[in-house]
Amino acid sequence: MFAIQDYRSGIKPVFCPGCGDYGVLSAITKAFADLQLDPDNTVVVSGIGCSSSMPHDFKCYGIHGIHGRALPIAEGVKLANSELNVVVVGGDGDGYGIGLQHLIHAARRNINITYIIMDNEIYGLTTGQASPTSSFGQKTKSTPFGVIEKPINPMSLLIASGASYVARGFSGEPMHLAELIKNGIKHKGFSVIDVESPCVSFNKLNTFEWARRVVYKIEGHDPKDLSKAMEKAFEFELNPAKLSIGLLYESDRKTYEELEVELKGNKVLAKQDMLGADDILSFLDEYNV
């Protein structure tokens, strides 16, 4: 049996005091323990940002990658060894800004990994510039006269792109969030949990006080209903006083690994024999090279 402390490296997190990411770290650790994931069979991948330091906090395999490139790294890990539990962590700048193109393609591929995006509507690590989810009119270091761009809607984008598990959590509700993460890891396919995780240092608009006023838990919603899921995804955009947390959408479709010829039948690339010189020469002969 693995206890919660078995998943922690002992390295102290470097988040600012009061940061919402502490709650997310706690929720991920609880999800790992509830699922009894073997640390030797688990990989946490990140890009760059405040939340992207998390691979250092876990006692398992970890890769601290480059800005916006966490998903292609994680996809490579999963395709090389499909038996691994692959979890990606990052912020809204990393996931919805620099790495947005990777997010869309990972969703349509439906590769079997879990992505936890800590959305604080700001670039926190670089001390307070506007991010793709910053509110219209919000004044930041990079927008002193207010944001003039429409913020993206992550939930509707993910559903439309083909992600087969789309949920939203709140770092101020770590037990509820842990369940969303746990179910996302159990889900067979590309699962994304967007987490409202306030930045206490640089975002004075989307604070914990604000989040507690607008956040509510989804009840009586059918996540299998695509049209209803889209309604939930656009709810906050139409009514900024209501931000739903919970599972918005879930579908059952084949994963990328199940459809990829070289991985069908539970093949694991990392366990297959390497090609020898004779194999390569025979392959080249087929193409008269």
Task: Please tell me the CATH architecture by its name.
Answer: 3-Layer(aba) Sandwich
> What distance lies between the first and last C-alpha atoms, to the nearest angstrom?
54 Å
Number of helices: 10
Please state how the strands of the largest beta sheet are arranged side by side: 2-1-3-4-6-5-8-7
Mean pLDDT metric:
95
Total beta-strand segments = 8
Rounded Rg: 20 Å
CATH C-level label: Alpha Beta
Could you give the order of the helices and strands?
Answer: HEEHEHHEHEHEHEHEHH
| Uncertain segments | none
CATH topology name? Rossmann fold
Domains (count): 1
Shape: globular
The CATH superfamily name is Thiamin diphosphate (ThDP)-binding fold, Pyr/PP domains
Q: How helix-rich are the residues, as a percent range?
A: 25-40%
Structural class category: alpha/beta
Beta-strand percentage? Answer: 15-25%
Kindly list the characteristics that best describe this protein.
10 helices, alpha/beta, 16% strand, 8 strands, 289 residues, eight-stranded mixed beta sheet, globular, single chain, Rossmann fold
Structure description:
By secondary structure, this protein is of the alpha/beta class. It is built from ten helices and eight strands. Strands 2-1-3-4-6-5-8-7 form an eight-stranded mixed sheet, sandwiched between helices. Strand 5 (about 165-170), helix 6 (about 175-185) and strand 6 (about 190-195) form a beta-alpha-beta unit. It is globular, with a radius of gyration of 20 Å. It starts with 20 loop residues before the first helix and ends with a helix. The model has no long low-confidence stretch (mean pLDDT about 95).
